[in-house]
Design a protein that fits this description.
The protein is mostly helical. The protein has four helices and no strands.
Length: 129
Amino acid sequence: SLVIITLTYLIIGAAMFDYLESENEQILNNQLNLNITRFKQKYKMNETEFNRLWHRLLEKKPYLAGNQWKFIGALYFCTVVVTLIGYGHSTPRTIPGKCFCIFYTLIGIPIFLIMFQSVGERLNSLIKF
């Protein structure tokens, strides 16, 4: 039952992060695309020239992982937050997302610790047997 509770907790957290962060991420992506279009128009670059520049920039800082805050990305974030106390490659950007992350972590870490302890005890009993 602890594993079910933990998985349910992860799914609920992912749904909340999807709800809280997804719209903001889409707005930022739209702004980036608008800025790219303006940049290409301003410097009269065709798609090939711009892609060459873009890939050169990405070699310095790769970040094209796609939309992170859709459900699957948010589920991954939730798992990383409660198991590893964050990985550092992504963080919520909105104030509600940040507040929820603090609350979610404070409850999620103890749930994971209890679940891992329970699984460990069962594995220990199995090994002793």
